[in-house]
């Protein structure tokens, strides 16, 4: 125990030394919609970054598909970044953006349950196993590198099986976000109220239990909004830099997926023209639940120095993420986009009220007839493969 604590203290010291290397500036550091003044709030900045769930390469998990790889080292970095973005959405969904993590401090049951959604097991709803296998339906072989848009499409499909978090996942097409379609999707009731009769898991609190499908018409299904973009040909066009940075200031921000070809990072903020990111390129051993049903979370938080890169070195293929827990959050996001993004002559993306007439009709995605609750996930690869064939006309290539 002492060695673990001393190692942690060393990492904090390294982090503090690294922060000294930041330029002596009065500029603000923005992390997922929150600002930190570098000169006076270094410890808060450290705490905010280390609180993000950090998913990296893992080894020694059960082979994917039974006979596939038992490590994702070298190919799973974008999948891990997608997990980090989704995990941040779930943290905001259940614990709030201001929730903070402290080492060896007992955390809410929702936190443990969120973590268990991402363990490297085939029965965990957002595991590397489920993401890799769902990617087959997107034309990606198991062990093949994903791009930002492919990860977004995979998360959209997997979320349909996750009743506990009950997210509406919208992935924009053709650089266009359609307000009408999002409102239609987030106001859609489940097809059946039968699941309301099931006993909710013990880890659900009273407020979550009261939100079953049969309680009453829910005003809003929490929204995970992903906007895949291509911001240039071979490198990012400088004209998009200010708008891209503006997205990290929005309270709804979940950061961005991107990086360099075959080298993905999860971008969580910026200082000046440098992006701050979490790097999944560390290989750790598989971690499973312990006998008491909890997960040792020490390897799921990055206590190392935050990494940075100049925004102009970013590959132009990216995906922005936003989370709108309530309808008013989405309305506020639309206003911010109108004010900060659409003011540019060369817009990073479009926000329109009505569904474009030349597009196929919008049909909110519906879950197949498979019953699952939270981290308990469908155990049948055949059902996943069948679902891949059925879904989804909205796949796009960027």
Automatic annotation (TrEMBL):
EC number: 3.4.22.-
Catalytic activity: [protein]-C-terminal L-amino acid-glycyl-phosphatidylethanolamide + H2O = [protein]-C-terminal L-amino acid-glycine + a 1,2-diacyl-sn-glycero-3-phosphoethanolamine
General function of this protein: Cysteine protease that plays a key role in autophagy by mediating both proteolytic activation and delipidation of ATG8 family proteins.
Protein family per UniProt: Belongs to the peptidase C54 family.
Protein name: Cysteine protease
InterPro entries: ATG4_LIR, Papain-like_cys_pep_sf, Peptidase_C54, Peptidase_C54_cat
First-level EC class: hydrolase
Molecular function GO terms recorded: cysteine-type endopeptidase activity; protein-phosphatidylethanolamide deconjugating activity
Peptidase C54 catalytic domain location: 43-335
Region of interest: Disordered: 196-216
UniProt keyword annotations, A-Z: Autophagy, Cytoplasm, Hydrolase, Lipid metabolism, Protease, Protein transport, Thiol protease, Transport, Ubl conjugation pathway
Superkingdom of the source species: Eukaryota
GO terms classed as biological process: aggrephagy; autophagosome assembly; lipid metabolic process; mitophagy; piecemeal microautophagy of the nucleus; protein processing; protein transport
GO cellular component: cytoplasm
UniProt main location, coarse: cytoplasm
Bias type Polar residues, positions: 202-212
Keyword Hydrolase: yes
UniProt-annotated location(s): Cytoplasm
């Amino acid at each position: 125990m002492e060695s673990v604590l001393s190692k942690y203290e060393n990492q904090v010291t390294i982090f503090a030394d690294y922060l000294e290397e930041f330029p002596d500036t009065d500029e603000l550091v923005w992390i997922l919609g929150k600002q930190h003044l570098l000169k006076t709030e270094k410890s808060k900045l450290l705490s905010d970054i280390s609180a993000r769930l950090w998913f990296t390469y893992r080894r020694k998990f059960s082979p994917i598909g039974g006979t596939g790889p038992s490590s994702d080292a070298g190919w799973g970095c974008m999948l891990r970044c997608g997990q980090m973005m989704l995990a941040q959405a779930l943290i905001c969904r259940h614990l709030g953006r201001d929730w903070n993590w402290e080492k060896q401090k007992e955390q809410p049951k929702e936190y443990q349950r969120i973590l268990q959604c991402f363990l490297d097991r085939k029965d965990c709803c957002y595991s590397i196993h489920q993401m890799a296998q769902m990617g087959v339906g997107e034309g990606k072989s198991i062990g093949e590198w994903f791009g930002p848009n492919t990860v977004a499409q995979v998360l959209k499909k997997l979320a349909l099986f996750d009743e506990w978090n009950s997210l509406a996942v919208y992935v924009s097409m053709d650089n266009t976000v359609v307000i009408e379609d999002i409102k239609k999707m987030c106001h859609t009731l489940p097809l059946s109220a039968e699941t309301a009769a099931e006993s909710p898991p013990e880890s659900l609190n009273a407020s979550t239990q009261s939100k079953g499908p049969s309680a009453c018409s829910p005003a809003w299904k929490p929204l995970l909004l992903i906007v895949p973009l291509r911001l240039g040909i071979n490198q990012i066009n400088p004209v998009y830099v200010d708008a891209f940075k503006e997205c990290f200031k929005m309270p709804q921000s979940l950061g961005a997926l991107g990086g360099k070809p075959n080298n993905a990072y999860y971008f969580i903020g910026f200082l000046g023209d440098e992006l701050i990111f979490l790097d999944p390129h560390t290989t750790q051993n598989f971690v499973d639940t312990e006998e008491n049903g909890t997960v040792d979370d020490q390897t799921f938080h990055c206590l190392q120095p935050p990494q940075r890169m100049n925004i102009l070195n970013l590959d132009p293929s990216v995906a922005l993420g936003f989370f709108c827990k309530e309808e008013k959050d989405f309305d506020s996001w639309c206003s911010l986009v109108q004010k900060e993004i659409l003011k540019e002559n060369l817009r990073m993306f479009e926000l329109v009220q009505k569904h474009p007439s030349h597009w196929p009709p919008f049909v909110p995605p519906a879950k197949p007839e498979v019953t699952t609750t939270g981290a308990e996930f469908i155990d049948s690869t055949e059902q996943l493969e069948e679902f891949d064939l059925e879904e989804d006309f909205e796949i796009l290539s960027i």
